Amino acid sequence: MTPPRRTPEGTSPQDATTASSPSVPRKAPGVKDVAALAGVSVGSVSNVINRRDSVRPDVRERVEAAIAQLGYKPNPTAQALRRGTSPLVGVAVFDLTNPFFMEAAAAMERVLSREGYIMTLSSTHASVQEERELLEALGRQAVRGVLLTPADCTHEAATRLAAEGTPVVLFDAANAPEGIPSVSIDDRAGAALAIEHLLALGHRRICFLNGPADMRQSAQRLAGVEDALAHWQQLTGADNVRLTVLNATAYTAQAGHCAAENSVSQALQATDGTAPTAIFCANDLLAMGVMSYLRVSGWTIPTDVSVIGFDDIPLAAQMPVPLTTIRQPMDELGTAAAELLLSGTDTPARHLTFNPVLTIRESTAHPTR
Amino acid sequence: MTPPRRTPEGTSPQDATTASSPSVPRKAPGVKDVAALAGVSVGSVSNVINRRDSVRPDVRERVEAAIAQLGYKPNPTAQALRRGTSPLVGVAVFDLTNPFFMEAAAAMERVLSREGYIMTLSSTHASVQEERELLEALGRQAVRGVLLTPADCTHEAATRLAAEGTPVVLFDAANAPEGIPSVSIDDRAGAALAIEHLLALGHRRICFLNGPADMRQSAQRLAGVEDALAHWQQLTGADNVRLTVLNATAYTAQAGHCAAENSVSQALQATDGTAPTAIFCANDLLAMGVMSYLRVSGWTIPTDVSVIGFDDIPLAAQMPVPLTTIRQPMDELGTAAAELLLSGTDTPARHLTFNPVLTIRESTAHPTR
DNA sequence: CTGAAAGCGCTTACAG
DNA sequence: CTGAAAGCGCTTACAG
Question: What ranges does the record list as Polar residues composition bias (chains A, B) (predicted)?
């Protein structure tokens, strides 16, 4: 053997000086260094790291001492290459800026980092194109798993990724394919809850400000709204509820503000007796934007008009008019998703559904008109 | 050569059947497959990928055709191991749940993904311990770089990481060490701006609800408050301004609400003529919590008391009482930080400082008491 | 310009 | 139980 430890090409100027010139970043110790120090082979070092029990106690002790002395940490990249899987878990949400996702992401990170994984958080901007690209990139990274809020209803890319062996769990996706585990709340039931609350308060002219029509969440919440209405009519035998459905362009406060300005306010000002007395917004952010516009336009909440949201983001309770809303347990959702992912693929795919709960605060009241 | 392509251990049941049983996940093609198809060596394949110009045009074409036909994508893990750097960029913030950080993170992701990097977003919970652990983990991942909101004022772990060769840029850190590039706004000037605004409106009894006293942001904003006061006294020659400084336990709406309940409201109710007529909150979230409590307690904003925040998160404009605040250009901050990171370490470390700007909305007015 | 070979740092059957 | 060796998929001097 010649001086073999360096790559032939990697001889930087500093390397020419004494092995450990103090200002030069010391090369991190590797298995070989540990093996040398402990007087064993690299295989044994690896064994104490990966299969502790299959190694004689005294060897283990020597190796562990060497590891401690050198401050040795395995190189995760090399482990990933060899094992075919890395300590990364990819999390892909629609929008990094939406508190709903971030609450869930924070919960996910809690369980992932507790188990030694690193969370890779990215946004798909609810685009199926970006989702596909991201999923492919994550697949190539050999991530330990992927937690995805799917934009693509066909679940094509996700299914492929799963078929290639990467555990995937769908988050906030109701119609998950059989083979892929999922965690979500019952959006439909949640929306029904909101309408029932409004109905119970006495509202008969209701505006539903939904999100973009092509999103699954929107479709389901609309279905829930219609469920509640149908049920009500069946119960009362009367066809006395008027529903106005509007769509915002995104699930953001800004979009809510715009929608309020452009369409909600017109509905509210109808003089033919159809003006809504309550607005159900498909998420809290939308509700905030709406309330903001309403206030500027001189409406008082809930006196002039009731507003109810969806999600119960932390800010909902902190609004000047604390928002009545449908609570999604974001924390539990995130935790469950992460745990499901790590719990392994051995069991058949499970689909967890959480129940939304009506949280009454001050933005809803009996109608005065 | 014997049948050499498989790892000796990796012979799963399916592999025993015909090479490409349809239900089995096809092994992704590698350089060797491309080389074989193109009739060249793997070295040449690698060359067309990494040093396009050093390869004869006709060879390049054949290789590119093979790559396209096979849908070949380089394995980033192997590249990372060999090159010593991965396509990952680590971003570490205090709190995934704070819109300020997430706005910036969204901007960072925009530039990073445009350049082909993957963002790894994690939270340090503003703990120096967690920060150190995270930085070490990222270092071991051989990430392309790290964008950090530092909790540790000594910048010890960050400095070490940088010394080991990982590019680091500090984000929202004013007192960055010489050697590490940083991006931040002038917190001190921003806080002064807020106080000047209040003073100009005629307020003479001001409450400053700061964040946790041990955070750098808090210290600087307090300094800015004092600057403005000193300057005012110098200008007017009068010592007629009364400042009350309070600390919230965190930079959250919740903490703001608690602070309002526990201390701010007491100050407000002082009957000895010291009751503040305006409150400067060290961030918008705090301001939201405060406003929420104030409203419940019967105060009207801005008539009874003015409130001004800091950050200008998107929701600030969407509050029922749109919040006057000091705007940080989160987008630009994030973009600049990411670009600084990728622009390379060749230039001397740069420290970019952005100017905060006073954004007047409706939560501040002349005092009425 | 191209091919063959070494090596990144690890893990894992396999033979002793 | 341990050591030596092969190999994960790529990149890069180096010799032709």
Answer: 9-23
CA dihedral B239, B241, B246, B247 (to 10 degrees): -80
Instruction: Look up residue B263 and give its amino acid.
Output: S
- Compare B347 and A150 and report the one with higher pLDDT: A150
Distance in Å, alpha carbon of B15 to nearest chain A alpha carbon:
15
Type of residue numbered B63: V
- Asked if the bond preceding A302 is cis, omega within 30° of 0, the reply is yes
Which among A15, A77, A111 is the top mutation candidate for probing chain B, defined by the most B β-carbons within 10 Å of its own β-carbon?
A: A77
Domains in chain B (CATH in brackets) are 31-74 (1.10.260.40), 87-186+332-354 (3.40.50.2300), 187-328 (3.40.50.2300)
Contacts of B299 (CB under 8 A, 6+ apart): B268, B305
Read off φ and ψ for residue A45, nearest 5 degrees.
-60, -50
The pLDDT value given to residue A26: 63
* Count of other CB atoms within 10 angstroms of residue B303: 12
Q: Do B318 and A97 touch (CB under 8 A)?
A: no
Burial of B255 (0-12, 13-18, 19+ CB in 10 A): buried
Q: Could you tell me if A184 and A333 are in contact, meaning their C-beta atoms sit under 8 angstroms apart? A: yes
Helices A128-140 and A156-163 cross at an angle (nearest 10°) of 10
Whether the per-residue pLDDT at B14 is higher than 60: the answer is no
| A106 to chain B: closest CA residue | B96
pTM of the model: 0.86
- From chain A, the residues in CB contact with B164 under 8 A are 25
DSSP reduced 3-state for A123? strand
d(CA B248, CA A168): 40
Q: What pLDDT is recorded for position B17?
A: 32
Cα gap B66→B72, rounded to integer Å: 8
pLDDT at A4: 35
3-state secondary structure of A170: strand
Work out the average pLDDT over B337-346.
84
With 60 as the cut, is the pLDDT of residue B335 above it? Answer: yes
Say which residues have a Cβ less than 8 Å from residue A45's Cβ, sequence separation at least 6.
A31, A34, A35, A38, A63, A66, A67
